[in-house]
Write a structure and sequence with these properties.
Elements lengths: L16 H14 L4 H14 L6 H31 L6 H11 L7
Length: about 110
């Protein structure tokens, strides 16, 4: 069987005896064909992850913050609707505790 993309570049690094034993155990645990195969796949999969502080990472954080703010607004609206309908609502202490965990004050709604 011919190799479609021959691997002709070499990466070399040293490990302590303990690190090497952990590496071998991980190879067995994940069913890798060899130490090289496991190390190569581990490094390449790490490279595909978003690096902290990158533009993509920052964009994801901004998006997540916008979604959290939207949810906070909707929760506030639901609480006001419940109060207006006369239904039982969570106690003020619960509301303050949730907002405190989110770094908001009850007056932000």
């Amino acid at each position: 069987m011919s190799v479609l993309r021959p691997r002709n570049r070499l990466v070399n690094f040293r490990l302590s005896e303990d690190e090497f034993e952990k590496l071998k155990s991980s190879c067995e645990l994940f069913g890798a064909r060899s130490v090289s195969d496991f190390a190569r796949n581990s490094v390449l999969s790490r490279m595909d992850q978003v690096a902290p502080g990158s533009e993509e990472s920052s964009g994801r954080l901004v998006n997540l913050d916008q979604k959290v703010n939207s949810l906070e607004t909707r929760v506030g609206q639901l609480l006001r609707l419940l109060e207006a309908s006369g239904e039982s609502t969570p106690g003020e202490a619960d509301f303050v505790a949730v907002n405190g965990a989110l770094g908001r004050s009850a007056s932000s709604y």
